Amino acid sequence: MTSFEDRQRAFETKFARDEEMAFRIIARRNRLLGVWAAEQMDLTPAETDAYCKAVVQADFEEAGDEDVIRKLMGDLTAAGVETDEGIVRRALDDRSIEARRQLMEAQ
């Protein structure tokens, strides 16, 4: 029984570690996405920092990326930035890759 329990414990540990890493990647991605959008809107460094935090917080509204995309689209449109959902989704995908790379390098 011990080997089965050890395997189960190892699986649970790996699952927890993978979930934590996924959360960190998404949070980093959202911060990078906030920086990208802030650059599009010509925000100051202080405004950029606050905006990045708001983008990270927006992800907690519902499961998935739609809440973040909706926030970015609304904010970019309100700031007079010409964009569409495809551009925002590409930026999201690019920032996902960058976030994963940054976290892998940090380990």
From TrEMBL:
Pfam families referenced in this protein's UniProt entry, alphabetically: ATPaseInh_sub_z
Top-rank taxon: Bacteria
Protein name (Swiss-Prot/TrEMBL): DUF1476 domain-containing protein
